[in-house]
## 1
Amino acid sequence: MRWLQLTFLVLALAPSARAEDIVDVLRRSQQARLEALPGADPTSPRAALLQRSFATLLQAQPGLPPVDLRVITGPVIAETVHGHIVLANERLADLPEGERLFVLAHELGHVAQQHWLQMAMVYQKWVPGEVTPEQTDAVAGRLGRDASQLAHRQEFEADAFALRLLRRVGHDPAVAVDAFMHLGMTQDTATHPGTRKRVALVRATLAGAE
Ligand SMILES: [Zn+2]
């Protein structure tokens, strides 16, 4: 599942006319991502169902920073951009309610735990000041490794958050495993641990909570 899609190709983005720091570049990359993902019809019954599920979660998790849901179509299942815009595919409306809530709660985990800010800080640590090709080329490998490690940890944290939130809205968190199965097995990527590792962590968390 390509949930948080933090592209590590961000450093290869064409430089803009004015001087930018790395957080500007990251923001630009997220904005490009947002604009590239096709929006679904917001008035459709599937979009309405997603909005209702999302509202259920927000009600059960007070204290979240302001967050928006945008319903999308296309191959991406769900991801969060700019730290506070959750993009969720209209196909999630076809899943059983508990599985849909798990996917949305996972994205809220990224928002609640300020994962965007943490990631921006890693980039800033390696690329302080103005972004230049000389500067970024020299650290790209080490930055990529740090960012990838953090991204994997954030996925596990967002899954754990989602399990807790599922319980709070009255669903058996074990449906998380069904959600992984329905959405298809994936291998490890730079940004995401593979399904096998995520399911193993969910099962260990559930076993520990009993
Ligand atoms: Zn995620």
## 2
Amino acid sequence: MSKRILIIGAGPTGLGAAWRLEELGHANWLLLEKGGVAGGLAGSVTDDKGFTWDMGGHVQFSHYQYFDDLMDTLLGADGWLHHERESWVWIRDRFVPYPFQMNIRLLPRDEMKECVAGLVRLYKNPPAGKPANFGEWVDATFGAGLARVFMRPYNFKVWAYPLEMMNATWVGERVATVDLERVLNNIFDERDEVSWGPNNTFRFPKFGGTGSIWRECARRLPAEKLRYGAEVVRIDTATKKVHLADGSSESYDHLLNTMPLDKFLRQTELTDLQPLGDKLLHSSTHIFGIGLRGKPSAEVQKKCWMYFPEDNCPFYRVTVFSNYSPNNVPDISEYWSLMAEVSESPQKSVPATPEARLEEVIQGMLNTRLIASRADIASTWQIRLEHGYPTPSCERDAVIYDVLPKLDRLGIASRGRFGAWRYEVSNQDHSVLQGVEWVNSLLKGEKEMTLWHPDVVNGVKR
Ligand SMILES: Cc1cc2nc3c(=O)[nH]c(=O)nc-3n(C[C@H](O)[C@H](O)[C@H](O)COP(=O)(O)OP(=O)(O)OC[C@H]3O[C@@H](n4cnc5c(N)ncnc54)[C@H](O)[C@@H]3O)c2cc1C
């Protein structure tokens, strides 16, 4: 008899594993999903006015040929729209192209001087030793000026934790560092340095938002092996049994968990590991969809997404979601749409009611001139994701390096954005590959690269 594999969660990680099991001809598996539809955090919804929303602007960044091929297979060559990755920072009443640090010439003169002075001081006195946390890393990499003007306020807005509570090792490829000579040349030559261009494109599903990818993936898997409305509430690791909210249970030889690791541990009898799981930090994310009549202003018309470091608005990022696909709005000749993201944690609160939160977002969009008038608003939609970002806190690595191998030895793999809590490998491509590589390790004895070697997988396209 072949080994029985149970998968908890129909997000990209669980679906990636299921897809690979089918590919390798291992038929003995079952996926349990508590929701009614596949996709998890990479799902999409269409509101009652006909606007489609992702759970925050999702872009396909791929580090893997396997992921690219899967995307082609699922939606076909015609199923996608291709865009340049235009991203901008709104600061001091103007747009500065991202990466911000390369374009400080666009700042008011005093602040440009402050940023350059910080970089020159770093150049003259390079910091000795390794930074102890993300805050120290920011200061040591960008200098005091850039840290004060952009890096610190922006990162607090995104992460919702003081930078000193985050580790300095997750950063990898995710934050572009600074080349002083290039910064100065850009100032003297009055040149904008943008990170987009013909080779820096992304694709987005023509119809149905990002979630359409995962709905299609689930549709192509054997229907009898995907069980929706199946919430796992208890895992008995000694008898290898998973108990569901409806009172039923399922046995396994190998279990793949993709629900948040701390929650998973609390559902087991592994009382020694639970306090470790409880040390993991996360932030919640509020997503706001604002459907609008008319057309975006000339400034916003071509932009993909924008970062907002200042306190004149609650959001850290806004996506012009109608630019990703015209089908994200009911009729592109009449409507357009913006999607905003706001973070929350015990260290960063938000207004108590959904109405008050929405009001802050709308006022923020007026303050930052994203929208001209409240009268243009045709639809509003919002959702709170309890688990939005897995915080790469100072204690995180010690927890996952201890807990995950212990679970592995019990026949349990905890993988994916919150299953493994590794932000640096928690996008859709990483998540799919975490599922795929786990199956490859189980059935073919291959090494799992994504989970344990983020720098390697993020450094090369394979
Ligand atoms: C604001 C935001 C922006 C993002 N932007 C991007 C982007 O631009 N590009 C990109 O590639 N990625 C992006 N991501 C990340 C992307 O959403 C994740 O990579 C992906 O969804 C993670 O997949 P997963 O399967 O690991 O987890 P999830 O998507 O969280 O799926 C887990 C699944 O498990 C189910 N589940 C949980 N508990 C139980 C239970 N007890 N029983 C049964 N089922 C359960 C859940 O319902 C869910 O369906 C973003 C995420 C957020 C929050």
